[in-house]
Amino acid sequence: MIILRDLSLRRADRLLFEEANASLLPGQKIALTGANGCGKSSLFAMLLGELQADRGEIEGLQGQRIAHMAQDVAASEEVAGDFVLGGDAAVAGLLKELQSAEARGDYTAAAALHSQLEACDGYAAERRALQLMLGLGFEDKDARRSVGEFSGGWRVRLALARALMMPSDLLLLDEPTNHLDLDTTLWLQNFLKAYRGTLLLISHDRDFIDASCSAVLHIEQQRLNSYKGGYSDFERQRALRLAEQRASAEKHARRRAEIEDFVRRFRAKATKAKQAQSRLKELARMGEMALAHEDSPFEFRFPEPPRGRDPLIELRGAQVGYDKTPLITGADFSLRNGDRMALLGRNGSGKTTFLRTLCGELPLLAGERHSSEGCRIAYFDQQQVDTLDLDSSALLHLQRITPDAREQTLRDFLGGFDFRGKRADAELRPFSGGEKARLALAILAWQQPNVLVLDEPTNHLDLEMRRALEIALLEFSGAVIVVSHDRHLLRSTADSLYRIAEGHLGLFDGDLDAYEALILRGSDEPKDSGPQRAEGADKQKTTVDRRDQRRAAAETRAQRRPLEQAIKKLEKRMASLENKLSEIETALADPSIYEQEHKAKLTELLREQGSYRSELEAVEGEWLTKQESLEAMTPGG
């Protein structure tokens, strides 16, 4: 067990921790959360021994093997496969010694080294290193390329692979998904589930936290507060704690009313899409969790966009690619006012190329592209940050776009992105990557687009800013198409999913959970069965005894019966729980419940709501499992 006892730390004139306490249990997987600048990276530095606390101590680190992910990897001539293998320093050292001994003909030393390698499973190390690289999106040939040949984002992936390669008791990962796509994020999520040591993870991807972590360590007011469960559980628990601490929750009630009003307006339009139902649930949950985020510095809206003529953008028979190399062929696609789409696909499938072609930045290799009159596109990718004038301020960037706008109007708008006061006037050069990404989003939003094309918009954004972006997108009345590894953002903002696979673009017939299951199975959608079976096999099939068929059908019915009965019971319980939750929500919609005299009743309602919601989620999960089992027994199901 690692114990953080009475830690106090000050950096320059800023107090980060004051008598902070926490315990990290063996094998526990913990998400470290908190506002930007609260001390997350400093805590990592203290665990690594790179920074000493002003007061207090960290117990239990002695003898611990600690692996961490470097944030910067310098370009070098070292072969990528060797760089990753170097994460297991002991094995890498033995392999180098063996190579040297064999080169000088010292076979006695070589024999001893062979024995050591066998004892520590060193012969499998190169294969493990390659498997890590493949899992993180590299190809076989990449293992033989030098580190310097890769871009900065891919070198970060190499750093992650090297950290995962290292045998460790404590694994420290700082934003490991920042440069990953969704498919690779799912692979990493699966890998971390199997990791046996203690994991301390800094991440702004709430679904990744939910899937990977069983506890949250939240930095707030110079303290370390522990919560059980993933990020969603943390939100519920923190909301309840704050509700108990605050006599007045007017801001919570006001925000909840706004979201509930939006849900009512949106519901009539949402029934046509499978994803819309989960989106409505997410909106409702957002209202409940608003109190957990009431101290967020971010709150902005996309200005109401002008309505363009439908379809806003249309592709017909499009062949998409670059340098005469097609990545997608025969694509028919249209984007209309109010459409909300997510684009899925493996790394290298052509998602970014498709978005750039859709925006008109890349020419079609074949086919047609049409955009309607009044179509105003805002395209965001990470290169957007590179276009910023680092010697200018956030305010000046907006003034250059609209010279006639009132300065106070611009300042009010930038305030929603947490560029307030002197921060709006400061030059950008010393800004963090997250601050620059926020400004790039602000500039796009200010231009009043009616089409938002977003390629990994959440990279470098913290959880609070991601939530503000999510709310802004939910209220945006224009069209949205997004590529992101942030599943929470996709679930709450996309009504339809499109997928690029094997060079073709098509509507994905399922929700994000179905796509996640597909990727984690490591298989694609069912393909054509291919050539017909041999004639002899067909004849054999026709000779099956009819009595055996009837007996098999009777056995299937017998197996289905208890499942069908269980499903009916679960459906009744789901209906009962939904009715109870509806009654609680009606009570919570009454403004008087937030008055001081009803504090005890409010606390009880919130407790019951959390309990019923947890039970409903469990019952729904059980219902889904049994329903899938039932469908598996159905011919063709």
Structural class: alpha/beta
Provide a count of the helices: 23
Q: What is the CATH superfamily of the domain at 319-389 and 434-520? A: P-loop containing nucleotide triphosphate hydrolases
Mean pLDDT across all amino acids: 82
Rg calculated over all Cα atoms: 28 Å
**Number of E strands:** 18
Write the CATH fold name of the domain at 319-389 and 434-520.
Rossmann fold
Most strands sheet: 6 strands, mixed
The CATH level-2 architecture of the domain at 319-389 and 434-520 is identified as: 3-Layer(aba) Sandwich
CATH class of the domain at 319-389 and 434-520: Alpha Beta
Dominant shape: globular
Determine the N-to-C terminus distance: 48 Å
Given as residue ranges, the uncertain stretches (5+ residues, pLDDT < 50) are 268-276, 523-546
> How much of the residues is beta strand, in percent?
15-25%
Helical proportion, percent range: 40-55%
Tell me the strand order in the biggest sheet: 5-6-7-3-8-9
InterPro entries: AAA+_ATPase, ABC_tran_C, ABC_tran_Xtn, ABC_transporter-like_ATP-bd, ABC_transporter-like_CS, ABCF, P-loop_NTPase, Val-tRNA_synth_C_sf
Region (Disordered): 522-561
Family: Belongs to the ABC transporter superfamily. ABCF family. YheS subfamily.
Organism: Congregibacter litoralis KT71
